[in-house]
Write a structure and sequence with these properties.
The chain is of the alpha+beta class. The chain is built from 17 helices and 30 strands. It folds into 3 domains: 18-130 and 179-231 and 235-268, Aldehyde oxidase/xanthine dehydrogenase, a/b hammerhead (Aldehyde Oxidoreductase, domain 3); 144-175 and 272-430 and 597-743, Aldehyde oxidase/xanthine dehydrogenase, molybdopterin binding domain (Aldehyde Oxidoreductase, domain 4), CATH 3.30.365; 432-587, Aldehyde Oxidoreductase, domain 4 (2-Layer Sandwich). 25% of the residues lie in helices and 25% in strands.
């Protein structure tokens, strides 16, 4: 019987965070620290012709400016997934400007306020050109087709014979992760050794980027990542402010700390790009999908080709006689997009689930029944599903919501409000990487597990504590999980909802090795009751070694044999990844098992049911209730999993109703790069949440049976909200976010 796993457990770092004792990068201050203030380009395209920093350097406390006039030659680093750089454009290497807000310098001063102020007085002259922007309709002439996707079946023939057809375009704007904690970096050189603290989801990625860019051995760099105050993909990669901070620390011979302002972070630290979705969907009279065609057009930068994989769920989620999935990129004068929670799934499933609703209405069929009739028996690749509980999510969710065949639009009302109900499916891949964990047992009975992962608010300390407590039968007061240090055993980037699936099995392996090690000591100790016994008999119960009718305190055994601490390193990974992949991951480059394994296709599923009200005169949309049922493998901590789902749902709510990066139509700059004008949901916007998990046993995913949770909540929710708004008003909106003026 598990005492910790499969049960709710409050976060082990909760008291530290609410009491202010948890430390973050900006609070890291080694000795006498200097401060950096970023200088950003004010044009979108062109060349720097002159930099005059005399006025900035005349300010009291300003030591100087790091810019292209003084920067060393540095090497190019690939961006995700081939590398961990935020963009392949190496900072300060020349006068070319490719996007507004491009980092072009760092002012260094004795205070943060002076550094930020002086940065405003670095005068830069440019030769500017007219920038390119993401505009128009359809697939523009300059778009570049990628290799992701393909055609299956007779798409033309199925279209011509369909009973119901839809040919529609859906548009989603750019979104920014907007984590509460601002990006920050602290760098200090100690001779040839470099120490860095960074707000990062990937300590090994930071080290790899700096080592490669600067041309120094990775062993000469130590990166530490204390608690991270939110990330959501925006802190996966290494950006220019970290690199400039390292250069400044080298030049001025002291530790330098750079903390980005909100507007700076929104200019160059990654975002979900604007995208356009061309959907063609057909069904026969029985509600079986004939054609599912999804063409995605998304923004990328001039320097990089960032692919938004928005069509993936259109390949996976429903069966179809014919299918065509395409992805197109439009290079523009903007910074390189990056990963953001459910990167392609969130925008792609808004389009897909909206189209599914439109077809269901045209067939006069219950949208739940329409989805149930099109659940595929296997993955399009021919692989079996490791588990597939979408039908259970839909039926259990519908029952909990009280779902019935929808009334006609505008039939449900409450005074000045129209009432609408909508639903959407949810799906996200079950990814996994390799990982290692060092487990140390001291003679006092304290167990310390160390791994290089980051703690970004995802609760990794808590779930790893649960695994250790139940595996070794010890109390949580005897367990400590350490993280965020490149000196610890390697762990993957915290992304793709794979942290528990990757690191959890490594904890199991380390615990088994610790038991074996202790038994090895005991069976060779003539004073031990386990002298000469076999290892399979032994288990932990508290600090007692127990088995075969014998019992001994582990601490007594260690003291008797002169052992202050025993260390074991556990390792685990999927069969698809071998030694070469491990060395790549250890270096700081992403390696991952995709949802398609050797033997099965592995995905998490869910269903969102939403009730909204829309004001008849003002067009204001309020989400009153969200009922969700999710199948995500074994739920190790129901409380933590529920919180992760709600976090994703809040993202989906923001995507549907509020969040939008607004670009200047001619100058390409971001007009709302602050939290006054870029709106995000607050406590006042929260609906009532009814979250539940269906039984989902999955032995294929990993040794613990877990699957992705964190990004499942925001995959599809925007579609459910849009569908509910249509039910309330009769107005079908195909562009996000849903603005009140569009409903008046």
């Amino acid at each position: 019987m598990n005492q910790y796993l499969d049960k709710p457990m409050h976060r082990v770092d909760g008291s530290l965070k609410v009491s202010g004792q948890a430390h973050y990068t900006a609070e890291t201050a080694p000795g006498s620290v200097l401060y950096g203030g970023m200088v950003l380009a004010s044009i979108a395209k062109g060349r720097i012709t002159a930099i005059n920093s005399a006025m900035a350097e005349s300010f009291p406390g300003v030591l100087g400016v790091v810019d292209m006039r003084t920067a060393p030659k540095m090497n190019r680093v690939e961006t995700f997934p081939r590398g961990p750089a935020g963009e392949t454009l190496v900072p300060l290497q020349g006068p070319e400007i490719f996007y507004p807000g491009q980092p072009i310098g760092l002012v260094v001063a004795t205070s943060l306020e002076m550094a930020l102020t002086a940065a405003l007085f670095v005068h830069v002259q440019y030769d500017s050109e007219e920038p390119s922007t993401f505009a128009g309709e359809g697939i523009p002439g300059g778009a570049v087709r990628t290799m992701m996707g393909g055609v299956h079946g007779d798409t033309a023939g199925v279209w011509d014979t369909a009973a119901a057809r839809l040919d529609a375009e859906y548009d989603t704007p750019g979104n920014h992760p907007c984590p509460m904690e601002l990006h920050a970096s602290v760098a200090e050189w100690k001779g040839e050794m470099l120490e860095v603290a960074d707000t990062s989801q990937w300590p090994l990625g930071v080290r790899y980027t700096l080592a490669t860019m600067l041309g120094i051995p990775r062993e000469n760099i130590r990166v530490r990542v204390p608690y991270v105050g939110g990330a959501f993909g925006g802190k996966v990669l290494t950006y220019a402010h970290t690199i400039l901070t390292v250069l400044a620390a080298k030049r001025f011979g002291k530790a330098v700390k750079t903390i980005l302002t909100r507007d700076q972070a929104m200019n160059f630290t990654g975002y979900r790009p604007p995208s356009r979705h061309l959907l063609r969907l057909t069904a026969d009279g029985d509600g079986r999908i004939g054609l599912l065609e999804h063409k995605t057009v998304s923004q990328t930068s001039i320097s990089d080709r960032y692919l938004l994989p928005a069509g993936e769920m259109s390949e996976v989620l429903y069966s179809a006689h014919a299918r065509n999935i395409e992805h197109w990129l439009v290079p523009v004068n903007a910074s390189t997009p990056s990963i953001m929670r459910a990167p392609g799934e969130a925008p792609g499933m808004f389009a897909l689930e909206s189209a599914m609703d439109e077809i269901a209405w045209s067939l006069k069929m219950d949208p739940v029944e329409f989805r149930l009739r099109n659940i595929p028996g296997q993955h399009p690749s021919g692989l079996r599903w490791s588990s597939h509980e979408l039908a259970a999510c839909l039926t259990e969710g519908a029952k909990a919501f009280g779902w019935t065949q929808p009334h006609a639009p505008r039939e449900l009302e409450d005074g000045d409000w129209w009432i609408g109900h909508g639903l959407a499916a949810a799906c996200y891949g079950a990814y996994r990487s390799q990982a290692a964990v060092r487990l140390a047992l001291s003679e006092t009975g304290k167990l310390v597990a160390s791994t290089a992962t980051s703690e970004i608010g995802n609760g990794v300390q808590t779930v790893l504590t649960q695994i250790l407590c139940d595996t070794l039968r010890v109390g949580s007061d005897l367990v400590e999980v350490r993280f965020g240090d490149t000196e610890f055993p390697a762990a993957p980037v915290v992304g793709a909802s794979r942290t528990t699936a990757s690191i959890g099995p490594a904890v199991l392996d380390a615990a088994e090795k610790l038991l074996s090690r202790l038994h090895g000591i005991a069976k060779s100790d003539s004073n031990s009751p386990f002298f000469g016994t076999t290892p399979e008999l032994v288990r932990f119960e508290g600090l007692q070694l127990v088995g075969g009718g014998h019992s001994e305190n582990a601490a007594d055994l260690m003291r008797r044999n002169g052992l202050g601490t025993i260390e074991c390193e556990g390792f685990a990974g999927p069969q698809e990844l071998g030694k070469e992949a491990w060395e790549t991951l250890r270096s700081g480059v992403n390696t991952i098992r995709m949802p398609l394994g050797r033997d099965a296709a592995m995905y998490s599923f869910g269903a969102h049911f939403v009730s909204v009200r829309v004001h008849k005169r003002l067009g204001t949309v309020r989400v009153d209730r969200i009922v969700g049922r999710y199948a995500a493998g074994r739920i190790l901590n129901p409380l933590g999993a529920r919180n992760q789902i709600i976090g994703g749902l809040v993202f989906g709510l923001g995507q549907a109703l509020m969040e939008e990066i607004v670009y200047h139509p001619a100058e390409a700059g971001i007009l709302n790069n602050n939290l006054n004008d870029y709106r995000v949901p607050t406590a006042a916007d929260m609906p009532v949440f009814d979250i539940g998990f269906v039984q989902d046993s999955d032995s294929f995913a990993n040794e613990l049976g877990t699957k992705s949770v964190g990004e499942l909540g925001c995959a599809g929710l925007a579609g459910a909200i849009g569908n509910a708004v249509h039910h309330a008003t009769g107005i079908r909106l195909r562009r996000l976010p849903i603005h009140p003026e569009a409903l008046i």
